[in-house]
Amino acid sequence: MSLEKDIERISEEAKRYLEIGEEDIIRVHEISNKLLKHSEKIVSGALKSLLSSDLAIKFLKEAGLTKERAAELYSRWLGQVLKGDYGLEHAKNVFTIGLAHARYGVHRRLMCLCIGAWLRELLRALKEVGAEDSIETAISISKLLIWNLVIMLQGYYIARVESLKRASGISPTLFERLFKLKADEVYRSIMADMKMASRK
Asked: What is the Cβ-side half-sphere exposure of residue 79, based on CA atoms within 13 angstroms?
């Protein structure tokens, strides 16, 4: 399967799972201009969370990103979230954001936390603009943010698998098998430790 087909498959799978329909995209498009009037505040809030993390600051330095440049990239991404069409080209763009994160070794948990901060700030802004059907709009925004996270994490996953494959010659199938075996080993070990601790 080509990379483009893989991205399309993940995108459509995420849409089905999250029940993202055209009405969600339209609903967010309709409120986008009102929310973007608060973009400086939204970006500032999300950036404040990012800069509260020593780990995030380390990655920003390694990537050579200033606070101003990070804010600029955040603003651009916010526009894509609120005005994107969530088609294949949009998915490919978000996928490359995941690759860029992987390139600098950004932890996946930090990516998840960033989405959480974005959700918090967008819901605060939504409350301020007083949108009609605010609950439905909040649900739509939440679904679209999770879609973005899923696509970005897929970029991260592909980067890891491909780098391992090129470095060691291990196929993605064998990589998955070895990962599951090691995960099972770790699971059993941790569960045994937890049981022993509970008996003390």
From this structure: 7
* pLDDT 10s digits, 29-60: 999 999 999 999 999 999 999 999 888 888 88
Alpha-carbon distance of 103 to 120, in angstroms, equals 27
Using alpha carbons only, how large is the chain's radius of gyration in Å?
19
Report domain extents, the chain. Answer: 3-168, 170-200
What's this model's pTM, rounded to 2 decimal places?
0.84
Q: What is the DSSP string of the chain?
A: --HHHHHHHHHHHHHHHHT--HHHHHHHHHHHHHHHTTHHHHHHHHHHHHHT-HHHHHHHHHHT--HHHHHHHHHHHHHHHHH---SHHHHHHHHHHHHHHHHTT--HHHHHHHHHHHHHHHHHHHHHHT-TTHHHHHHHHHHHHHHHHHHHHHHHHHHHHHHHHHHH---HHHHHHHHHHHHHHHHHHHHHHHHHHHH-
The CATH architecture annotation of domain 3-168 reads Orthogonal Bundle (1.10)
